[in-house]
Structures are given as structure tokens and as C-alpha cells.
Amino acid sequence: MAHAPNGIALLDRDGNFIEVNGAFFDLLGFSETELRGQNFPCFTHPDDLPVGELYDIEMRNGIRPHLRYEKHYRRKDGATVWVEISVSAQHDDDGELTLVVAHIRDLTARKAEEAEIRRQVHPDPLTGLPNRRMLLDHLEFTWDQAQRHNRAFAIIYLDLDDFKPINDRHGHAAGDALLIEVARLGGDEFVVLLAELNEHSAPASIAEKILNALSAPVVASGHHLAARASLGIVSFPTQIYGSPTAMLHAADSAMYAAKRTGGGRYHLGLPNCPAG
């Protein structure tokens, strides 16, 4: 018990600690003296108290002699930690609770990793559109399907022209509102992934529709704004690239070719070589 990697606690029939090991001290930040005579509710996050009380009643009545669930504890320093607690109850011949053995495993690091994964795969917080991580995942899948089933697909890389002057003139709130009106890749860049094309002319047609739609004024943070954009188009299998990322970079290069010729237009990447 003393050298166990996870926390272990022995509790009496009233739920007070009889003995705890070093891992449990470290988890909560209390000393052995501070913990002795205390009980789990003293350290349980308020949100988890109702469930804990219900489980305590069921355990005392022998309804659920073994439990495993996740909860929050509050450390001595005020920090919150996630734990998985496995509890076993021992009863005497009369069915009275005599001893509770609890194994406590720290889940804080795992929960932080899960939260980071959710953050990475969630949509862009400003626009609600897929973020870069989601885009790359979808692009990888589309690439694999196109290779396997000989399908055509295309990427349109879009960058707003003169976006910085809009921010400077009307403020970042107006710029953000414009981005919301217009999947953001980063800053004022967007990508459109066109999967399973039927005609090679489709990407150019869609690019024209995007340019026309952007030219219509929108109300952004109280300002009437019209967006211009430069678009770069690459397609598979018309153009051959070694990886989805290389294809995305080629679309970016094609976009800059459109920007160098004045913007407000699209540029088709050249077959079999990077665009631009």
C-alpha cells in the first residue's frame, strides 16, 4: 500500500479515513495528519457531491458493494484534479458496513489530453467552420479515396484581398464579422475542398460563384463591406502531387499567382508542377 503508484484509502463505517498512502497525499497535497479523520466529501467538488451521496447510500445498504466512477477532487492549493475511484465495501454478518477500501487513480493528465484533442478537432471558434486540423483530416481522406477509386477532386485556396486595411479602417470587430460572413485556415485564408468532381471545369465554375458572392456588400459590425479575394485552384488527377500537403501548398502558390496579377480573380495551377 505504501509504495502503490495510485492512491489507496481505508475508511471506517462513517466514511472517515483510517489510513491513506503516500500517492493519495501527493494527489491532494495534504499531509497524513491533515487527512486523518477527514472524509471524501471534504475534498469532493460540489458538483459531484449529490452523486457521491447516492453511491454512499447504495453502498451502505449493500445495493452496490463495488463502485467505479469518475469525479473531481479539490486539492489543498485549490486546484481541481480528475480521478477515477474504485470503491469496495465490506459488511459484517448482520449486513452492517464495516470497512471501505478505495483505489484512486489520477486522471488529470488524460483529461487534459482529451480536452486538447477536442479543441483541435472542433470548428474554428470565430467562424464555426472546420479548422485547419479538420481540413487536413478531410483532405487526407479525400486523397486516399481518390487514389483508390480513381476519383477527381479539387482544392480552392482563398485569401481575402486588402483585409488588413478593413481591420485598420473599421477595427478588428468588423474584420472578424467579415470573416464570419465569408473554412478559415488561418487569419484571412480559407480553403474549399471539392470532392468527387464530375467535370474538370467544375472548380473554375465554383470559383466564379465564390468571387461573385464575395463581391456583394455585407453588413459587418455595422459597416457595409465588400470583400475581394484571390483564389488558387489545383485538381487531382489533372495535377500530380506527392501528398495532400503538397497539393495544398500548390493551391496556395496558385492563389498568390492570382494576387500578383491584381487579385479579385482565380488562378489555375499548372498540371504536374506547383502552381504560380
Fourth-tier CATH superfamily name of the largest domain: Reverse transcriptase/Diguanylate cyclase domain
The secondary-structure element order is EEHHHEEEHHEHHEEHEEEHE
Q: From the 3D structure, determine the CATH topology of the largest domain.
A: Alpha-Beta Plaits
What's the gyration radius in Å?
A: 30 Å
Helicity level: 25-40%
The CATH architecture of the largest domain comes to 2-Layer Sandwich
- Euclidean distance between termini CA atoms: 67 Å
Count, helices: 9
Number of structural domains:
2
Structure keywords:
single chain; alpha+beta; Alpha-Beta Plaits; 2 domains; five-stranded antiparallel sheet; 38% helix; 29% strand; elongated
Question: How would you describe what is shown here?
Answer:
This protein has 9 helices and 12 strands. The chain has 276 residues and is α+β, with helices and mostly antiparallel strands. The protein has 2 domains: 107 residues, PAS domain (Beta-Lactamase); 147 residues, Alpha-Beta Plaits (2-Layer Sandwich). Strand 9 and strand 10 form a beta hairpin. Helix 6 crosses helix 7. The termini are far apart.
